[in-house]
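Attaching the record inline, Q. Sequence:
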Amino acid sequence: MVKKPKTVFVCNECGSESAKWVGQCPVCGAWNSMFEQKVVDFAEDDKRRRTSKADGTGTAKAGRPERLAEVKSSETARIDTGIRELNRVLGGGLVPGSLCLISGEPGIGKSTLILQAAQNIASSRDVVLYVTGEESEEQIRMRADRVCGEKGISNNLFILAETNIENVSAVCQSLKPVFLIVDSIQTMYSADLESAPGSVSQVRACGNELMKIGKTYDIPVFIVAHVTKSGDLAGPRIVEHMVDCVLSFTGDRSHEMRILRSQKNRFGTTSEIGAFEMAEEGLIEIENLSGILMEEMDKDSEGAVATAVYEGTRPLILEVQALTSPCNIGFARRTALGIDSSRLNMLIAVLEKKMGLKLLNQDVYVNVVGGIRPEGTYTDLAVALAVYSSCTGKKLDSKTLVIGEIGLTGDLRAVQNSDKIIREAQRLGFNRIVLPIKNAQHMRAKDRDACTIDIVGIRNIAQTKELFL
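Structure, as predicted:
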């Protein structure tokens, strides 16, 4: 039998309830402010409901509309993880009540990163709960000894080896942590379902329960997920839609540098990246990422061009390398690492049409050094000049930085934040920057007077021939 909703009357001014309609609110005295509202009874143990925090008890309450202007904002209540690069990618720190997902290949450093964040929060705030479904307590302790070092493990950091999500929820209700970590979501299961851990139904149920824990107790929840061989998130995609933030941890395990990028972020930008270096004592932040990427650039090499992009809140200097070689058999190959392949094909067509290059029988390889995948069209001019340099054998000065978007007509279009890129290039010792004419014209007079770098504005890609040695 379907339960019929009961009717209550709520004051539009003060929010007080009454069992019957009255002309004047008995609490605030406002006239004609009572409106009818239907309330449906619900089960207290309904696990499908996602309630926002009420009184901190975790008890589900009937939903009631509130004025958005009266809802307290938590923007100023972000939790500092103690890792500046992680805070940068998150948009300023952890948001209470949020659910964040971090993914990456095995051995890339996901567990090390979140363990360092857990140690920092436990040392400066309160109880942190680390739920492990893959490793034992002893394995986590071994990693913690290596990461924490001389500081020692905080007494506020608790470890729980458990895969039953109901037990995790019960421990959170009694322990009341300020930060919850689940490693990993594919190992968690709910006793209400008979399917195996990692299935679509189990991931949906466990993700919903973790969301309920975060919203009810107003704590940030960090969950770890695996990736497939192609780099996509393993398991059902439903988990990406449920969470507030999706972080991707990438890098080559044979190299030390790791890049943390946000693919989804409801509380910040998705264009920010964080850089880390894997060391014996854990992950070390890389503050001067541009200097690291440019320190091995050879002087005046064919096919090597310095460029820059603006990632989130900071400029990033990169090196683009290109190689052309004669194609002896079949069709010419076009290989791009770090940039879009279709974008490379378009730039090659522009070079053939506007600069007279013959690339029909040439294999073209383009690589962005460091494994960075820059977003936007900042690197168009650098890619085109790198291909031109390799094909013609002409060199570009290694102290020259080039940025700009190339259109199909060969004209250069302006890019954003060029003034900040110029200041970063000046700091790193570049003596010339080539950019679209509109960016050069819009440079403010005071910036141009204070700038010691030579600013070269060009209108069309054909004008770049004069730049080569």
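Residues 211 and 382 are 45 Å apart (CA to CA). Residues 54-60 have pLDDT under 50 and may be disordered.

More tomorrow.
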